[in-house]
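Re: the 123-residue chain
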Amino acid sequence: MTRRSAMELCGFGIVGAVVLHAADVTGKWTAQVPGRNGQTREVTFMLKQDGAKLTGTTSGRQGDTPIADGKVEGDTVSFTVTRNFNGNQMKMTYKGTVTANEIKFTQQREGGEPRQFTAKRST
């Protein structure tokens, strides 16, 4: 076996291990998300994973909003949500680290400070 073949085989093994250990985030997740003046609001995430692709919705006071650009890479999830407020669009970016029953999220609005919260798997 040549050195290059051995390196390629090793690379495929690493990629395979990452795929085998990818998080499964399909399902319902709920979180208390920090808001203005220290208040929190409950947000529900309905997520559907298909390989590395992530789709779903977030729901809160204004109803369900679809997620976009959803990805799952190992134990990391990311997606965006665009909401309309009084005719103005606001884009929020979510990035999270998945454990068995939790996703530790960082949420950031365009031009805003990041907020951190934890979503828990619901039944």
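The first strand starts at residue 27 and ends at 34.
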